[in-house]
């Protein structure tokens, strides 16, 4: 339960730290760290507006998306303690929980009947498909400290893909040729949009917790807490710096970049086998 509480707390400030970092690097005062959460609360106080062309799928999708991400957070361990839900092979269950939420988001976008949203849905499905091998290889490997830094970089990039951030997607752009995730949720409003946005914040904190767990094995509870907070904060700052100084990749280069992550993950897996003496 401790890991779930820590992830929930981290999700409250994670996106705020990203926005604050971008503001500082741009020389602006910018909003406060808690502003994204305040926006979510403001949205949740409003009613949602539904198009007459949408079905029950569109109304269910935000709730399913949020519930699957929240349940995935229950599977995350903390240091040497297991998650609230834990069993052999639970990382597969974790991956497909996130996949289920994304699936509902995709069919909800297609349910609107808009070719614009359908285009974003197909792009998001494609990128998630490409990122899946790297995700499974990293989580299925017994990462040691020597390879944890490299694995953390790969996981950070997968988190950027899963959360539709730079360099794969730009959450601020509204150009038809470049939009991925943002175009999928254009028809969502009020409470539904608040759920989708907070699920994204929660997903970022989940990936931050997974990265922290690469380093906290065998640590005392106090040191594990310090590493967890430091990792979440550093992860958010790094994302803010990347989005401040890096442009989005050209659309046709995204697939090459994601495939490269799978290759690096496979090299990490071979490195783990060498470290453990099980290569042959």
What does this entry look like structurally?
This protein has 280 residues and is mainly α. It is globular. The mean pLDDT is 83.
Brief descriptors of the model:
280 residues; mainly alpha; 10 helices; 70% helix; globular
Mean pLDDT: 83
Which structural class do the helices and strands define?
A: mainly alpha
Distance between the termini: 39 Å
What is the helix fraction of residues, given as a range? over 70%
Content of β-strand = under 5%
Radius of gyration, rounded?
19 Å
User: What sequence of helices (H) and strands (E) makes up the elements?
Assistant: HHHHHHHHHH
Annotation, overall tally of beta strands: 0
> Spans of 5+ residues with little confidence (pLDDT < 50)?
none
Query: From the structure provided, what is the oligomeric state, counting identical versus distinct chains?
Result: single chain
Task: Report the principal-axis shape.
Answer: globular
Characterize the main sheet.
Answer: none
Tally of alpha and pi helices: 10
